[in-house]
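Try this one yourself first.
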């Protein structure tokens, strides 16, 4: 389980009011000071994870993760300016695969294999 705070881009100070919690079941993003908003996404819905590190993030040891999910409310979850981004990315990838196997869910691509219509044009 990981608990990380969103950090500032400069000096990577954790003074933002956003907390990311990643465990074996879900990813939770909690934002706000006076009005708190919590967004959850089940980990088994994560299909892919992208990590980006700007020059400032590399200097201060942070990174940004973009989780591409099959969730209708959050197709892209962004974990912005977090420490241990590489370690968390690997954890999410491994845990999401294990959760899909455990739930027996499978992500399939919508590939249209309609080749029969193409052969009719040659005749």
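Now uncover the answer:
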């Amino acid at each position: 389980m990981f608990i990380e705070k969103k950090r500032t881009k400069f000096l990577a100070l954790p003074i933002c009011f956003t907390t990311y919690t990643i465990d074996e079941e879900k990813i939770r993003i909690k934002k706000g000071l006076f009005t708190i908003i919590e967004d959850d996404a089940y980990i088994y819905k994560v299909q892919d994870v992208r990590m980006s590190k700007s020059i400032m993030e590399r200097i201060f040891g942070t990174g940004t993760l973009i989780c591409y999910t099959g969730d209708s409310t959050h197709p892209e979850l962004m974990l912005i300016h977090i420490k241990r981004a590489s370690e968390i990315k690997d954890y999410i990838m491994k845990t999401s695969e294990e959760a899909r196997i455990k739930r027996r869910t499978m992500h399939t691509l919508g590939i249209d294999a309609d080749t029969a219509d193409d052969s009719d044009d040659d005749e």
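Discussion: The beta strands are 2-5, 18-22, 26-31, 37-42, 46-52, 62-69, 76-83. The chain has a mean pLDDT of 86.
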